[in-house]
């Protein structure tokens, strides 16, 4: 099977018998489809290789290939593979990634016999978005300048992930295994639902917005001796968790404004200029400086994130409430009033 997947990665045509073998393998187990997606993704495959490097004994490597039913490569993988030469070693990486996946799922053990949890981290750069499929079928969309850390497979009584930045979740329902999201000092507990978590470090609070279902939001850490405080959200509500004032009461919000980034849009509704500029900085990878007070200036409107940054700044300038100057080092200076 590793050889067939390698042929697919190299865009080599499969024979009819090979196509049938691949189809039978995919249909035999739902997790095989996810495995194929993982192995076709460079970032995921790199993460699998990094996980495999934990097993640095020769007999462990041999056991991995034995579990797969593949012959041990003549050249030792650890001695020859370097992360910087990923493409040159693609065929061997497929074998290693496939073998390590099955070995970890079948044995669930580490070198000392304890349970093994392999974590992956996926990050987005400014101006990027990324969809992540979790082992339970839940989907996560990462906004720009964000990251998620999650296990390759969910073990135990909960499904736990951690994010920075902003992410939209569509969680597969499982009443026996709650889904937990940690973001800064907030923790969100759900069973199956759709919600958005915004937890950028330059924001004054972590905000959780519910679109469907129900979620319980609390502080990640509480003061010793104090009863834990939580809030249950209804669809269309948002709650904030700040380090200074703690957990807020739910408020109604326009969810389409909160999740507009998923549709490739900037959408503002009486949004203050500093908040707008933070979004611009994350998407266009620019620095922001202020030459005067602009906190009381607000703007409503919508524009595609595909537009050039100058187009967006021109629209804001047309309000004649604020204008901008761009320096040579990609710094935008925000100045109140018109030119």
From TrEMBL:
Pfam family, any one: FecR
Positions of the Protein FecR C-terminal domain: 266-332
Organism from which the protein derives: Niastella yeongjuensis
Protein name listed in UniProt: Iron dicitrate transport regulator FecR
Stretches assigned to the FecR protein domain: 121-216
Origin: domain of life: Bacteria
InterPro entries hit by this protein: FecR, FecR_C, Ferrdict_sens_TM
UniProt entry keywords in alphabetical sequence: Membrane, Transmembrane, Transmembrane helix
Coiled coil: none
GO molecular function ontology, one term from the record: sigma factor antagonist activity
Segments passing through the bilayer: 86-105
């Amino acid at each position: 099977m590793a050889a067939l997947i390698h042929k697919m990665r190299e865009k080599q045509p499969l024979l009819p018998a090979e196509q049938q073998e691949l189809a039978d393998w995919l249909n035999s187990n739902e997790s095989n489809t996810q495995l194929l997606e993982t192995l076709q993704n460079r970032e995921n495959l790199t993460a699998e290789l990094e996980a495999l490097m934990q097993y640095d004994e020769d007999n462990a490597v041999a056991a991995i290939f034995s579990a797969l039913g593949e012959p041990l490569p003549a050249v030792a993988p650890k001695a020859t593979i370097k992360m910087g030469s990923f493409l040159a070693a693609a065929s061997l990486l497929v074998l290693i990634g496939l073998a390590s996946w099955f070995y970890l799922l079948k044995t669930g053990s580490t070198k000392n016999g304890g349970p093994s949890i392999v974590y992956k981290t996926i990050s987005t750069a400014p101006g990027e978005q990324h969809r992540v499929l979790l082992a339970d079928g839940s989907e996560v969309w990462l906004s720009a300048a964000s990251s998620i850390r999650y296990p390759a497979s969910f073990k135990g009584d909960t499904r736990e992930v951690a994010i920075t930045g902003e992410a939209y979740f569509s969680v597969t329902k499982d009443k026996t295994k709650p889904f937990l999201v940690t973001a800064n000092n907030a923790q969100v507990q759900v069973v199956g639902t759709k919600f958005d978590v915004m937890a950028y470090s330059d924001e004054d609070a972590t905000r959780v917005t519910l679109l469907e279902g129900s979620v319980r939001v609390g502080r990640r850490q509480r003061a010793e001796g104090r009863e834990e405080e939580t809030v249950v959200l209804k669809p269309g509500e948002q709650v904030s968790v700040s380090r200074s004032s703690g957990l807020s009461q739910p408020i109604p919000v326009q969810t389409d404004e909160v999740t507009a980034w998923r549709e490739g849009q900037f959408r503002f509704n009486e949004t203050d200029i500093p908040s707008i500029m933070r979004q611009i900085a994350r998407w266009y990878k620019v620095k922001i400086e202020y030459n005067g007070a602009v906190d009381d200036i607000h703007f409503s409107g919508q524009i595609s994130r595909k537009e050039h940054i100058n187009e967006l700044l021109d629209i804001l300038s047309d309000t004649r409430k604020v204008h901008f100057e761009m320096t040579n080092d990609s710094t935008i200076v925000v100045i109140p009033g018109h030119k």
